[in-house]
Amino acid sequence: MRKEINVFQFCKETNLLLRDEGVFLVSKGSGKPNIMTIGWGFLGTFWRRPVFIVAVRHSRYTYELLEASSSFTVCLPGRGMEKALEVCGTKSGREIDKFKELGLTPSNSYKVEAPFIEECPVHYECEIIYKHGLEAEGIPREVVDEIYPSGNLHTLYYGEVKGVYAVEGAGEALKKWQT
Hints:
By secondary structure, the protein is α+β, with helices and mostly antiparallel strands. The protein has 6 helices and 10 strands, in the order E-H-E-E-E-E-H-E-H-H-E-E-E-H-E-H. It has one domain: Electron Transport, Fmn-binding Protein, Chain A (Pnp Oxidase, Chain A, Roll), CATH 2.30.110.10.
């Protein structure tokens, strides 16, 4: 059973996972739900609101889903989900149903339309309140050369965090990533 927790209770763990392993971004749009592994994002305060900002390249299937949606979830993986992180970071939802392929369960969120991954110990429910497409002209040349040599830029989606939910023992499940 999940309970609602403070938005920033697992902020440190979330940022460590983003940097070192990745987290799951779940979107739905008008079709089936899809999971994508992300390693770039920000959890913080913007416009006096708790906000999770995620970056999605225009070429990704998730981009299409987010453009047709008003919400997303960010799910923190538990120990043993390394294969799922790899598959969700290398395979496209255009070609496979990642939930089915990986035996993961999409569950209805409490406050947003996008589902969350039942097997993840913590998830953030986010309502899209703003989006901004990056422009190469505003990015340092060395970053463009390194990250965007083909011009496949990101759109930043600002999700107001409407709720964060965790299973009992989530802290221990997340600490195991750091051992």
